[in-house]
Amino acid sequence: MSVNNYFEEEEFSAQFNGKTLRRILGLTAPHWKWVAGFLISILIVSGLDAVFTYISKLVIDQGILAADRARIYELLGMYAGLLVVQALFVLCFIYLVGILGERIRYDLRQKMFNHLQNLSLSYFSRTPVGWIMSRVTSDSDRVADLVTWGILDSTWAVMNILTSMIFMFVINWKLALIVLIILPILLVIAVEFRKRILVQFRNVRKFNSKITGAYNENITGVRVVKALGREGENMREFGGLTQEMYRSGYRAAWLSALFLPTVQLVSAFAVGAVIWYGGLQAQLGGISAGGIHAFVSYITFMMWPIQDLARVYAEIQHAIASAERMFSLIDTVPEVADRENAGDPGSIYGDIEFDHVSFWYEDESQPVLKDFSLKVKRGETIALVGPTGGGKTTTVNLLARFYEPRSGAIRIGGQDYTSFSLHSIQSRIGIVLQTPHLFSGTIRENLRYGRLDSTDAEIEEAARLVGAHDFIMKYPKGYDEPVGESGNLLSVGQKQLISLARAVLARPEIFIMDEATSSVDTLTEALIQRGMQAIMQKCTSFVVAHRLSTIKRADRILVIEDGHISEMGSHNELLRLRGKYYQLYTRQFREQMTQTLDVFQSSPAQEALPAD
Asked: Phi then psi for 579, rounded to 5 degrees?
């Protein structure tokens, strides 16, 4: 699959988004004391910078030109004292900014993680993991940096410009007007540049999401990549993607780099005009030599803040592009959510009814389930079989309320299950999937995942019940053996047994097995079947099966085709019917017998004959 088109994310307007910027700044509201502290520190530091330049003017006019050594010492002493005060406030704002940045990062990541827990399964089905990871990591870092160092730098720059203009008006208002005329020109330049920079940075963030997603897919699917020899093709596709990101990043960097010399060129014109007009004023006695020196120093002093504003402005564009995608995640509304006044029934161990249920996925025009009706008694075991895409997994996903019916209703104990809270339903359902997933940690921690208050004795009992205890104890650390990332240190069968034991430990009232034995050997399948029987005695069970040998003991077997039930009955009843189930069963039985005979027909006579 091409990495260039596996996911199309939301496109954002090319215009500057002031609403997003206000929302970014709103992240500081819970920490307003820290913000106020470092802003006050910045104001003092910036004000002292301007005072230092004015003191240099006094040193020239009142000390050097007046040959007053005592005045020089007095002014230098004042300069040194204020310098110590400034150093203390610099230490203060750096500390406060560092603390604020970490708090903003914590808030953003916690908020996104909490929101991800509440999103529906459909969101994760259509959104790549790499895209989500990019939002939680790099985008949250960039936004936090803007909120802290960006505010600090911009506040320092603005205050330096304002204080410099105030002192320039105090020294000579005519020269100050020349500088003031230049500022709108710089503003127009900034406005024009920001539009172009923002577009490129938005492209950079979009391609970064795709690159992160491509990394994730290729790393998690490395076995398939190597088995199919896709390395070269993947590198070609990935190279095209990184090339697009490079082009957008290059254009953004080029525009940002062009911004600074443009500002410097305009600033140089301002300095030249001030020196020329200041020289004329000095001849007429309108300004002193110290005043001209201070004026040029203030202009030069203003150029650094203006350049700093240019840099911060480029960062603002980049941060807004990151924030738009980050907020798009936070603003995503779960498709399945608790209804108003939804409650906890206390138990869902009751009769289950699918009442004329129809369902289709957003990206599909044809319904997966069509007018599907089924009544299941409490404690009954229902097996679902049929061709791929018939609606088996969708049925159990609807029951677990990962999705909700588009029409019709599902009732548990006679009540519409949408009147129950999601937690009250899903916390009482045990699910074992075709591809088992374990979390990084030990075997014990994975078994306890669904029921944190379980004791070690209960954990061991659940493992014994499904036949997992023996292989666990063969490890040096037993139940404290690490399983690796996603359980990759264990075999598929071992992971499946641990998943089954985890479901047993959770004591579910409804138990779902979705193709759980399709990827394991026959010995492990026998152990899983034994564990299934232990669970099914105490709950209502739904088993989606590919291997029909695992469902012979089911109370009812449903053959689901094209979104509806085509056959229903026990194993023996469906065999006597000689319909779809009979065809599936006999075909699978015939394949198994063929494989067995092929093994016994192999003989030494088939070995290669010696050369003539």
From this structure: -110, -140
Spatial separation of the C-alpha atoms in residues 333 and 337, rounded to whole Å: 9
**DSSP letter string, 483-507:** --GGGTTS-HHHHHHHHHHHHHHT-
Q: How far apart are CA 142 and CA 560, in angstroms?
A: 50
Beta strands in 334-477 (DSSP E): 352-359, 369-376, 381-385, 407-412, 415-416, 429-432
Select from 552, 555, 561 the least CA-distant residue to 588: 552
Residue 520 has pLDDT above 80, yes or no: no
How many CB atoms lie under 10 A from the CB of residue 267?
Answer: 20
Say how far apart CA 560 and CA 398 lie, in whole Å. 15
Which letter does DSSP use for residue 137 in this model? I
> Is 327 strand, coil or helix?
helix
CA angle, residues 124, 126, 131, in degrees to nearest 5: 75
What is the Cα–Cα distance from 384 to 354, expressed in whole angstroms?
14
User: What is the SS3 assignment for 543?
Assistant: strand
Question: Taking the alpha carbons of 218, 224, 230, 231 in that order, is the dihedral positive or negative?
Answer: positive
Specify whether the CB–CB gap between 377 and 453 falls below 8 A.
Answer: no
Residue 323, both tokens: 């924030």
pLDDT band at residue 607 under the 50/70/90 scheme: very low
Residue 345 phi/psi, 5-degree rounding, is -75, -10
Distance between CA atoms of 280 and 277, rounded to whole angstroms?
5
Distance, CA of 125 to CA of 105 (rounded, Å) = 27
Whole-angstrom Cα distance, residue 128 to residue 115?
16
Residue with tokens 């080029």: 254
Compute the distance between CA of residue 461 and CA of residue 467 in angstroms, rounded to an integer: 10
Please tell me what DSSP assigns to residue 482: B
**Average pLDDT of span 342-350:** 89
CA distance 436 to 317: 43
Distance CA 559, CA 568 (A): 6
Element (H, E) at 512: strand 510-514
The pairing of strands 510-514 and 429-432 is: parallel
pLDDT at residue 178, as a whole number = 78
Radius of gyration for the chain, computed over Cα atoms and rounded to the nearest angstrom: 36
- The tokens for 432 are 């074992």
Q: Where are the alpha helices (DSSP H) in 284-429?
A: 289-330, 392-399, 422-426
Assess whether pLDDT exceeds 50 at residue 14.
no
**Contact (Cβ atoms closer than 8 angstroms) between residue 438 and residue 503:** no
Number of Cβ within 10 Å of residue 129's Cβ equals 14
Q: Which residue has the tokens 């509806």?
A: 564
Q: What is the DSSP letter of 440?
A: S
Using DSSP's 3-state secondary structure scheme, residue 383 falls into strand
pLDDT at 167: 80
Mean of the per-residue pLDDT values of the chain? 80
SS3 content of the chain, % helix, strand, coil (to 5): 65, 10, 25
Is the Cα dihedral 604, 606, 607, 612 positive or negative?
Answer: positive
d(CA 295, CA 300): 9
Bridge partners of residue 558, in order along the sequence? 384, 568
Is 322 exposed, middle or buried (CB count within 10 Å of its CB: 0-12, 13-18, 19+)?
Answer: buried
Residue 132 has pLDDT above 80, yes or no: yes
Give, for 177, the enclosing helix (H) or strand (E).
helix 173-220
